[in-house]
Amino acid sequence: MRRAAFYTVCACLWVLAVVVALEGSEVLRVALLRGRVEAYFAERNGWARAQEQAKVAEYDAHAAPPPDNLSPPPSAPPRLKFLDLSDDASRWAFAKERGEVIARCDLSGIVEAVYHGESPREIVQIAGELRPGSSPVVILPSDKGQDQDAARILAGVPEWGTWRQYPMLLPDGSSYFAEWYFLPKFDKWHSRLGTYVFIRESFSEPSLCKCRPHIFRNDTINDWVVWTNGLGFRTNEVARPKPSGVFRIVCVGGSTTFEGPRNGLTYPALLEKRLREYYGTTAIEVYNCGIVAMSSSMEKDTFQAFLDFEPDLILHYNFANDTATVVNQVYAGLSGEEDSAGVIQAWLRKSRFLSGNFPRALLPGEDKFTAVVEATTMQNMRFMAEEARKHGVDMAVCSFAYPDVWHLPKMERRVFESRFRSSLAIAPEIYSYARAVDAYNGCVRRFCQESGNLYLPVAEGLREGLSCFTDNCHMHLGGIQRKAEVVFAGLKDYLEAKGFSPPAAKP
């Protein structure tokens, strides 16, 4: 009996030693690979960025300039020019031209000087609240920790800056949604001296369901040049009522619809160009109604704004902003399961070694993701499709593209594993995300088959990695162009059934 007990203890110790060794080896492997993975990403991403910059330069050489009725004016000096100014007179002129409040703060986040524009009136009020010797965070509300968030940023602004949008209460009692940009100040030896805080009207409206009208940005979102029309969307002005004979397409989605280095280099703008060239007509209009961070529930709540464009077709491409809800609900449901298989799988998912080397085997089944997608995202999709039908508008739904982590080369998979860090409190993150998207795409295919809505196989046409994607959902310009081409191919039969045909095919 004692011998059996001894062997049992030895076996358990050996198992424990093997487990500890495997877990430790995985931690070490990831640490050793980190540099190689980042170098690989930098090389591939650098190549894609170089290609993009060449295409953008070519586009800029022939593109029409932005309209004049934007805020700040496109002719205003770019924000980084402020760092080159050496006297207060030029700093005041800069702030007035851009219509901003600019506070110079020391290393502890205390205001040293304030410069501001003379309009809009909200900017003048904010400037009146900022005084040397105080902290700029005192003018922010604390009910949701906005002041604490700003204080944290002031304490450690990254070299490239940080921007936020904060709700504020002005001295006259009115509410105001403002954009804050924190830019570090360095001396010639690159030692940090403090922070510049730039405050201006927000890019988005407080609801976040659309942008402010006639806003111009060339210094906030990557190195993109962005402006909005009179309705608050990143697209051309809309003629209403719709001219006779025009076929109007409205593209609905989140940042993956909004994205692109120029307004004319988003997928809706490229799609319009491609359709007009192919059919030899200007009677096809495509509008970009993508809004950063837009979820399907937000789309549902603001659907009337899309109908106000008087579209003939609403084209939907979005899901990334629903995935956190879907994945977290899936794993929350698993935690309530009492069957032994579920408990064992949940325990195994905690292993760094197993989740790092066998991620697919540890995922919940796609049926569990499908059930949550049907109960959440697809309910919103059905509502929108029904509203479109009531107004005599067709609807097309795209499958959602993501990096093909199931089939990419190992190093490329490692890039997406290491760079994808979301709010999902689970592991392995990128594979759970991918499974959620697969479930959504399956739901969309079935939904379109059952409802008669047009299905566009974007995901099927973009099974790529770093050649298209910058992260789990966003794309380089090359990927955006390919997405526009896939959507164009999917629309041809539909548009020809509507009476459009290429010039060569016309009698």
Which radius of gyration do the C-alpha atoms yield?
A: 26 Å
Question: Under CATH, the topology of the largest domain is which?
Answer: Rossmann fold
Class of the largest domain, according to the CATH hierarchy? Alpha Beta
Instruction: Please mark out the parts with pLDDT under 50 across 5 or more consecutive residues, or reply none.
Output: 422-427
Q: Strand-residue fraction?
A: 5-15%
- The succession of helices and strands, N to C, reads HHEEHHEEEEEEHHEHHEHHHHHEHHEHH
In the CATH hierarchy, what is the architecture of the largest domain at level 2?
3-Layer(aba) Sandwich
Category by helix and strand content: alpha/beta
- How is the biggest beta sheet arranged? 5 strands, antiparallel
Give the total of beta strands: 12
Principal-axis shape: globular
Structure, described:
The chain is α/β, with parallel strands linked by helices and 507 residues long. It has two domains: 79-201, PAS domain (Beta-Lactamase, 2-Layer Sandwich), CATH 3.30.450; 238-505, 3-Layer(aba) Sandwich (Rossmann fold). 45% of the residues lie in helices and 14% in strands. It has 17 helices and twelve strands. It has helices spanning 2-62, 88-98, 121-129, 146-155, 255-258, 267-279, 296-301, 303-307, 323-335, 340-349, 352-357, 366-375, 377-390, 410-419, 429-451, 458-461, 477-497, and strands at 101-106, 111-116, 162-169, 175-186, 192-201, 216-217, 226-227, 247-253, 284-290, 313-317, 394-398, 454-456. The strands form three sheets. A five-stranded antiparallel β-sheet has the order 2-1-5-4-3. A hairpin with a 4-residue loop joins strand 1 (101-106) and strand 2 (111-116). Helix 6 packs across helix 17 (477-497), helix 9 packs across helix 15 and helix 12 crosses helix 15 (429-451). Mean pLDDT is 89; it is low at 422-427.
